[in-house]
Amino acid sequence: NAHVVTATNTSGNTIGYASKVNVIFDDATSDSTVYAKVLKIFDNGLDLAILRLEAPTTLRKQLPLRSAEGVDIMTTVYALGFPGIADDNEYLPSSIEDVTITEGKVTKEQYQYLSSNYLQVDAAISGGNSGGPLVDESGAVIGINSMVSDPAYGTGLGYALYIDYAID
Q1: Alpha-carbon torsion (85, 125, 9, 166), positive or negative
Q2: Can you spell out the DSSP letters for 100-146?
Q3: 133 and 141 in contact (C-beta within 8 Å)?
Q4: What pLDDT, on a 0 to 100 scale, did the predictor assign at position 97?
Q5: Sign of dihedral through CA atoms 102, 76, 45, 17?
Q6: N or C: which end of the chain has fewer CB within 10 A?
Q7: Mean pLDDT lowest among 30-34, 70-74, 110-114, 122-126
Q8: Beta-sheet pairing, 49-53 with 33-41
Q9: How far apart are CA 52 and CA 125, in angstroms?
Q10: CA dist 153 to 14, 37, 148, 156, 158, Å?
Q11: Helix (H) / strand (E) containing 167
């Protein structure tokens, strides 16, 4: 997500974007940290950043991507990520053992926010899940975990940006 690589001041105003980020595959103290270049940040309301690892890696296998256009309501989905509330400590980033996987259903196939399409899901998504994959039962990425519902309007709903934007 673009908001993950966005730098803000104490007032919440955007002051810039990262040009490079660390990608930690296993442990911040090991040699499993690689850099990723931020290739493109969409600042037109689309909460998407495109990254590219600076060097190939064998530490993870890529997941297949599948268009969200054909996803139906009540499709079983899994939200993967590293929410801050699941961290064992506040100083070191999560390790692979800290990944959370929550199960849910698509509750709305096309939720529009700022002219972008999202899947609305009841799988738990929280701070730190941003940028993580929303996968279907076959393990294909169909969305990018992006935000949660405003508690003033209900709870328990998360939103995943259509993966189609990244595919394009």
Answers
A1: positive
A2: EEEEEEEEEEEEEETTEEEEEE-S---TT-TT-EEEETTS-EEEEEE
A3: yes
A4: 67
A5: positive
A6: C
A7: 30-34
A8: antiparallel
A9: 25
A10: 26, 37, 11, 10, 12
A11: helix 164-167
C-alpha to C-alpha distance for 106 and 108, rounded to whole angstroms: 6
Which is it for the CA torsion 123, 162, 37, 138, positive or negative? positive
Tens-place pLDDT, residues 39-63: 888 878 899 999 998 888 887 888 9
Helix (H), strand (E) at residue 165: helix 164-167
Q: What six digits make up the tokens of 137?
A: 């039962």
d(CA 112, CA 135): 20
Q: What is the pLDDT of residues 99-122, one digit of tens each?
A: 789 999 999 999 998 889 999 999
Is the CB of residue 63 less than 8 Å from the CB of residue 133?
yes
**Which phi and psi angles does 53 have, rounded to 5°?**
-60, 140
Contact predicate 102/78, CB 8 Å:
yes
Euclidean distance between the first and final Cα of the chain, in Å?
A: 15
